[in-house]
Amino acid sequence: MVVGAIASIGLYTGFLKDLARDGNPHGHDHSDLYHEESHRHEHDHDEDSHAVDGVTRQFYPTPEPDRVILNVTETPEKSLAVNWRTDTTVVENFLEWAVATSGPEFQQNVSRVSARKETLRVKHGDEPVIKANYFSAEVNNLTPGMRYVYRVGSSSGWSEWHQVRMPRPDKLAFIYFGDAQNDVKSLWSRVIREAYKTTPDVDFMLHAGDLINRHDHDLEWGEWFYAGNFIHATIPGVMTPGNHEYGKGVKLSPNWRPQFNLPKNGPKGLEETCYVANYSNLKVISLDAEQIDESPYYAEKQARWLDSVLTHDPRKWTAVTLHYPFFSTKPNRDNEKLRGTFKPILDKHRVDIVLQGHDHAYGRGMVNNVTAGAGVKDSKSGTMYVVSVSGPKMYDVSNDPWMQRKARNTQLFQIISIEGDKLSYQAYTASGELYDAFDLIKSGKRPNKVVNHIPSTPERQ
Fold it and tell me: How many Å apart are CA 93 and CA 150, to the nearest integer?
């Protein structure tokens, strides 16, 4: 029997080694040596070890559902997609739902759908094999703005009833997180919980890659679900993969597709990593940045798909998320290939905002929509590019003039709301302090106007 508990992991300091690796301007190394060395904690703590005697049973599956998560769908105002996990003794599970009521009477009018099952067996290093059944189910034809309750399970065990409000067509709000990646239970949990406390009534949460550190480490996924807990089950998630969701050979985390239930409407072969979700006034697009960086074939497929989606099914507002930044915050890092292929598409369609991670710092600025110049930077009008980080791993930040506001050594979350012709953006630190803010204002066919509301707080350097 495995006993013990995972305590908080020591603060990640591997970035000191990463900073010495600037011969690679992209910093996207995926060799085994990179993953072993750059992700190793500098200080060893017996209580923090992921060795067998340090594994807690709270991250192991049981007959009762755990890791319950809502996922964004292609039609998120009218449908819900749910995933969860049990141990392998449970072979049948269900999703039950009803319209929420002010008392328990909703239980008299419950609908039920059978869930699909997928068995996953994972093993990381010398740790024991973790085998679990993952279940997924969807509910369609729901009413925008209506509140519903749902639960998952069977006679072997049920989850609690979770309550969710469907998005309203006239206004929308969501939370955006940069990389969580390291010390997720210990040091990222306060960020997602502070975000929820600050604005609990949002329509989705967007995670811009590197949710965890090692793509095949189930216990790290357990920490990510632990940190968000019921928040994951009540606010749909938009997850885009980062380089740490991929292993050697560009292999996606074995957990990704079993534990998530994301749209499959992107290019063939990139199901649930490159996709689009359509709200009445917002199109949210996830690009698989790792496949763009590593595969010319999938880069070209995503570019053609992106152009088609923006051409044939536009919305008033468009947000694109991907892990690698178009414009980096880190000194000596430049994603020129990404920019050369995809920025002309963003410029052509005047994409409003791009939400990114990877650089473990904060920076945002507006860059001009000039299709002939992938490197043109002009803060007067165009697309707003944001790089952010929510976990504790930090890099230096450059003085590149594209950034109108920047920060280093700062964990943040961002709240974005859209109503009519205005997009409002606020970035908060982990302690709940407003650090950055602006509005984007639409005016017909003219470029968006940015109205800054930057607080007087000095930039964190």
Answer: 13
39 contacts 213 by C-beta, under 8 angstroms: yes
- Do 362 and 329 fall into the same domain? yes
Give the total number of structural domains in the chain: 2
Q: Give DSSP secondary structure letters for 314-370.
A: --SEEEEE-SS-SS-SSTT---HHHHHHHHHHHHHHT--EEEE-SSSSEEEEEE---
Q: What is the largest CA-CA distance in the chain?
A: 65
Cross-strand bridge partners of residue 148? 99, 164
Residue 284 phi, psi dihedral angles, 5° rounding = -110, 125
Q: Based on the domain organization, do 177 and 146 belong to the same domain?
A: no
- What is the extent of the structural domain holding 259? 171-452
The structure tokens listed for 134 are: 């993952």
**Grouped pLDDT means (10 residues each) for the chain, 461 residues:** 37 40 48 39 34 60 97 98 98 98 98 98 91 98 98 97 97 98 98 97 98 96 97 98 97 98 97 98 98 98 98 96 97 93 95 98 85 49 91 96 96 98 98 98 89 96 86
In-domain check, residue 157: yes
